[in-house]
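Researcher: Re-running this chain for the archive, since the previous output was lost when a drive failed. Same request as before.
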Amino acid sequence: NCVYITDSAGYMLPDDVSSRVALARAELRPETELGFHGHHNMAMGIANSLAAVEAGANRIDGSLAGLGAGAGNTPLEVFVAVCERMGVETGVDLFKAMDIAEDKIVPMMDHLVRVDRDALTLGYAGVYSSFLLFAKRSAQKYNLSSRDILVELGRRRTVGGQEDMIEDLALDMARARGTI
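Model: Regenerated structure tokens:
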């Protein structure tokens, strides 16, 4: 069995990860594996994964070239390199992972994952990447900034699956600003 702590918005900081992993580890049976899944929206995927390991996680999700939503998942080849520098054995061939990421994964990607303003806003606001397209459509429809919509969604602590409320929120924001 394995229980996962996830940061699908890329919002958490290392202390957030440490406290959640430590709390879960204290409540789980010793033989239960504990994992962490992080996104890189605020460029914290590596730091958060290291914090998870230090707090008791024994599985870390990552992907070659960081392939994933938003600014991507924890880039596996970078995580392995950092672990090796720290003397932590991962069982992953670092140079093979680097070569596969660069030679196979990157050419398949429609666009390189990076921390652009959209990904950073998602991470800063703490909202899931599925909100982005809905926020952009609503922003265009109501002459608003998608960033303002996303930040407000984060302030309201919305979670994935609540995309249907984005247009209602945008309409309320536009009315409050007198733009409609």
